[in-house]
Amino acid sequence: SGRKPLAGKRALVTSGPTHEPIDPVRYIANRSSGKQGHAIAAALAALGADVTLVSGPTRLPDPPGCTVVAIETAREMLAACLAARDAAVPVDIAVCAAAVADWRVAGASDRKLKKDGGGPPALALTENPDILATLSQAGPRRPALVIGFAAETGDVVATATAKRARKGCDWIVANDVSLGTTTFGGTDNTVHIIRADGVESWPTMGKDAVGARLAEAIAAHVAD
Ligand code: PMT
């Protein structure tokens, strides 16, 4: 119902944590609930976009009107995002709100690790692919608008500004995830939208409201 300024546009959204296996029963994860990413996907769909949501494990229902691809690991998330990007209908807008594990366990065990008296196992980590940086790479399939998130502790805007340049995305949405904040897992978010031409700081609001306002900003940009 209502205005559909994103009708005819295809959007790809990532959401949630990734789970990186240690063995068949254990994994490394993080505190992302998927609330922010799912809210963005729902808001883009409400404005008429054709939305593919690639999500790690969450407790959330699928957002209405979205095609949901469930994954567990960062490598699965990358594969699903590249499949979406390279599909017949190109992706116009990509929003990477997922909290992707930067590292996975190198040589995860096929069998459950056991206490065998030899002391705790040493977990060697290896770097995961960067989905946002990959989607931001120049090329014929690059979405016209690529938006990343930056989860920071410390100088949020400065660190996120550097991250925007490093990853090559167009906008970055910075949020403070320091100890004592409930950005991870909570219902509210306080964000700074960093674009080439400056920073816009939004008041604290519900993640649904952040999603709605971001979708409106995207629609305004796409209409330009
Ligand atoms: O899920 P919620 O509980 O609602 O919490 C929301 C949130 C805090 C997870 C979300 O608002 C947020 O900040 N998401 C990004 C979390 C993160 O991992 O930030 P980062 O600064 O480490 O990563 C920067 C960007 O690169 C992000 O867009 C991330 O999706 C992307 N990335 C990171 C690593 C990687 N291997 N691949 C990526 O695509």
Keywords:
5 helices; Coenzyme A biosynthesis bifunctional protein CoaBC; FMN; FMN binding; two-stranded antiparallel ribbon; binds ligand PMT; 14 strands
Q: What percent of the residues sit in helical stretches (DSSP H or I)?
A: 25-40%
Strand order of the largest sheet: 5-4-1-6-9-10-12-13
Mean model confidence by pLDDT: 97
Proportion of residues in β-strands: 25-35%
Discrete helix count: 5
| Rg on CA atoms, Å | 18 Å
How would you characterize the largest beta sheet?
8 strands, mixed
CATH superfamily: CoaB-like
- Second-tier CATH architecture: 3-Layer(aba) Sandwich
H-E string: EEEHEEHEEEHEHEEEEEH
Given this structure, which CATH class is correct? Alpha Beta
Number of domains: 1
Give the N-terminus to C-terminus distance in angstroms. Answer: 23 Å
Which compounds are bound in this model?
ligand PMT
Report the count of strand segments: 14
Segments where pLDDT lies below 50 for 5+ residues? none
Kindly name the structural category. alpha/beta
Question: Do you know the CATH topology?
Answer: Rossmann fold
Quaternary state of the chains? single chain
Which geometry do the CA atoms define? globular
Could you describe the 3D structure shown?
The protein is of the alpha/beta class and 224 residues long. It has one domain (10-106, 122-223): 3-Layer(aba) Sandwich (Rossmann fold), CATH 3.40.50.10300. Helices cover 26% and strands 27% of the residues. The protein contains five helices and 14 strands. The chain has helices spanning 35-46, 74-85, 131-136, 156-167, 207-223, and strands at residues 10-15, 20-23, 26-28, 50-55, 66-70, 93-96, 103-105, 125-127, 145-152, 171-176, 188-189, 191-195, 198-201, 205-206. The strands form four sheets. It has an eight-stranded mixed beta sheet, sandwiched between helices. Strand 9, helix 4 and strand 10 form a beta-alpha-beta unit. Helix 1 (35-46) packs across helix 5. The protein is globular and about 65 Å long. The model has no long low-confidence stretch (mean pLDDT 97). The structure holds ligand PMT. Pathway: Cofactor biosynthesis; coenzyme A biosynthesis; CoA from (R)-pantothenate: step 2/5; Cofactor biosynthesis; coenzyme A biosynthesis; CoA from (R)-pantothenate: step 3/5. CTP binds at residues 102, 112, 129-132, 149, 163, 167. Keywords: Decarboxylase, Flavoprotein, FMN, Ligase, Lyase, Magnesium, Metal-binding, Multifunctional enzyme.
